Structure formats: C-alpha cells, structure tokens
Amino acid sequence: MNTSLRIKVCGLTRLDQIQELIALNIDFMGFIFYEKSPRYVLNHLALDEIFKINHHRKVGVFVNENIEKIVEITEKANLNFIQLHGDENEIFISALKQKLNSKVGIIKVIRINPESVILTKEKSTFYFDQNDIDYLLFDTDSKAFGGTGKQFDWSILNTIEIPLPYFLSGGISEDNIENIKYLKQKPFALDINSKFETEPGYKDISKIKRFISSLL
User: Fold this and answer.
1) pLDDT tens profile 87-135
2) How far apart are CA 142 and CA 15, in angstroms?
3) What is the per-residue pLDDT across 44-99, written as a single tens digit (0 to 9) for each?
4) Which of 66, 89, 69, 87 is nearest to 79 (CA)?
5) Rounded to an integer, what distance in angstroms lies between the CA atom of residue 19 and that of residue 186?
6) Which residue, 50, 92, 100, 132, is most buried by CB atoms nearer than 10 A?
7) Can you give the pLDDT at residue 135?
8) HSE-up (13 A, CA, CB side) for residue 127
9) Rounded CA gap, 126 and 148, in Å?
10) H helices present in 78-127, as ranges
C-alpha cells in the first residue's frame, strides 16, 4: 500500500478524540457545519473551541451555505480549508475565494452517481476555474450530502482525467482499501468517516489505528 497517502478524519465532534487523532498525526481534521448532518459540529463544540485546536489542516465542511456565513465561521474557528459539499458553482467558488484569507484552501466535492454529468466526455474537464481550488474530493452522491458509508464505483475515476490532487471518500474501510491499486491516478488522501464510528460523531479510535497500520 502507498504509505504517502494522507488521512482525513471527518465528522469530528469530541475534543478528547480530536486530541487522540492529533497524537496519531492525522493529516486533516474535518468539521461539519451542515445543520442537517447528524455530525453537525456546533451541536457539540463552540467555534472558539475549534479555534483553539492545535492543528494546521482543519477543514470546515459546508453544504450550499452563503458566502458570508462561510467566511465568518472560517475566521472564528480558524479553519485552514473549506470543503464545499453542495451544488456550489464556478461563480460561487470564485466569489468565496476572493472573500477568504488567501491562506485558506478550497476542496470541491464531486458527488458521484451513475448519471453524474461530470463523467460525460464533454464535461470531463470539469466546470470550474482550477486556480480557485486546491483539491477535489470524490464522494458517493446522496440526499444527505455524504456520511452514508456507501462506496461508489471507483473504476469510474479511471474514465476521466482528474486535473487536481484528490481525496477519495465514500464508504472507505479496511475491506475495500486494497482496491485503490486499480486506480490509474491514485488519491492524494483518504477521507474516512462513518465506517470508523460507533455512532455519528463518535469515532472508533482503535479501528482508525488499525486502518493506519494497514496502510504501512
């Protein structure tokens, strides 16, 4: 397995578990700011608590949120990356980029289903200015905007040219991680969430440790 793969743990809600993950040198910490999510972080942590978390790759996950709210939360929580998990278009992303601190990166999620327009040949160059985005993230499409624990058909990624480093998400577990070897363009990072929980927002740290060991 490729040991250069980064790991993002998403849907964090507990400070004690966050500290354990920091001790494991987890690369990206994901905090969900989508009120309909069962992992909505502001039900558990205040913005100043997130601000004080000593980690340099804190990711705020937003779904169809307005720009002003994203910028406000980013500043108050001291976020390093914004993950756009909704239907944000090129105009929105460009406007957001202009409002954010220049040091804040953007991750754009591409939700995959069999009818995804992103996968048709004429759209395979993607629909946004690549200069506004640092990473892509491919996830399984769902009405819940992620966190389903369901895997999409990864072989779809072999049919398109992916112009940026990307996170692979959607039901990643110890059972399917070996299939990454079949991807022509390997992911920059793995985004793990619901397969490593005992309940929404409560991570199984032992399982995460085993998963990291399996990558070595």
Assistant:
1) 898 899 999 999 999 999 999 998 887 555 555 444 444 556 778 999 9
2) 28
3) 999 999 999 999 999 999 999 999 999 999 999 999 999 999 989 889 999 999 99
4) 69
5) 29
6) 50
7) 96
8) 17
9) 25
10) 90-99
Q: Are 124 and 102 in contact (CB under 8 A)?
A: no
Instruction: Identify the pLDDT of residue 138.
Output: 93
Query: Distance between CA atoms of 168 and 170, rounded to whole angstroms?
Result: 7
Coil, helix or strand for 145? coil
Q: How many CB atoms lie within 10 A of CB 159?
A: 11
Query: What is the rounded distance in angstroms from the CA atom of residue 187 to the CA atom of residue 95?
Result: 27
Question: How far is Cα 169 from Cα 118, in angstroms, rounded to an integer?
Answer: 17
Give the CA radius of gyration of the chain: 16
Q: Which residues contact 102 (CB under 8 A, 6 or more apart)?
A: none
Strand (E) or helix (H) holding 58: strand 58-62
Percentage above 70 pLDDT, the chain: 88
Token pair of 24 as six digits: 């494991």
Q: How many other CB atoms are found less than 10 A from the CB of residue 47?
A: 19
pTM of the model: 0.91
Of 19, 92, 178, 14, nearest to 82 by C-alpha is 92
Q: Is 193 left (phi over 0), alpha (psi -120 to 50) or beta?
A: alpha
Residue owning tokens 């009405």: 143
